[in-house]
Design brief:
The structure is a single chain. The protein has a 3-stranded antiparallel beta sheet with strand order 1-2-3. With 188 residues, the chain is mostly helical. It has a domain of 55 residues. A hairpin with a 3-residue loop joins strand 2 and strand 3. The termini are far apart.
């Protein structure tokens, strides 16, 4: 009996010639066992095809998910730029104004130099206000410490009870975004 090498999994095709071969005499029980094996092999082939299809589907789904993630990240990056673009443009304009002014800075009088610097401070204030940043000043008269508006830089011990919780020195202005988030000036 010749058995050909099969590419397909299972042995159902190997037993087929045996079952049909008239020269081989099989009793009913052996024939029944061969038929059951053939049935099982056919079921295994179906299961293998199903598993292979499932693996292909999983690979396809993974590729789609990766592609969608990459596309979403692109939208996210572009959205971030669109959000900060007005601020970036304001900073670019300010930088260019400053570059032009630096060329003539040494020729200017002391008073004119101060005016130029003050104009940059005002321009920065405008940029902050355009981006919903409120600038506030704490007056010396309001010397009670407010947790939501101020940050302690240094504590000074005093024996005078009236001075406990009072502000003795104001270093910078305060900055608040949408009346909720306090932005602290970071000293470097």
């Amino acid at each position: 009996m010749k058995v050909e090498k099969l590419e397909k999994r299972g042995v159902s095709e190997i037993f087929q010639p045996v079952l049909e071969n008239e020269a081989v005499k099989l009793d009913t029980e052996e024939k029944s066992v061969f038929e059951e094996i053939q049935e099982l092999n056919e079921k295994m082939d179906v299961m293998n095809d199903t598993v292979s299809q499932k693996i292909l589907n999983m690979d396809f789904e993974k590729n789609v998910a990766d592609k969608l993630h990459k596309e979403l990240q692109g939208y996210k990056d572009d959205l971030y730029f669109q959000l900060v673009k007005p601020l970036i443009m304001d900073l670019i304009n300010m930088r260019e104004r400053m570059r032009r002014a630096v060329k003539h800075f040494s020729k200017e009088t002391g008073e004119k130099k101060v005016e130029m610097l003050e104009s940059y401070v005002e321009e920065i204030e405008t940029i902050l206000e355009n981006n919903s940043i409120e600038i506030y000043e704490t007056e010396k008269e309001e010397c009670d410490y407010k947790v939501k508006k101020q940050r302690i830089v240094k504590q000074i011990k005093t024996s005078d009870e009236k001075l406990h919780g009072k502000i003795c020195n104001i270093l910078t202005n305060g900055y608040i975004y949408t009346e909720k988030i306090k932005l602290s000036f970071q000293k470097k």
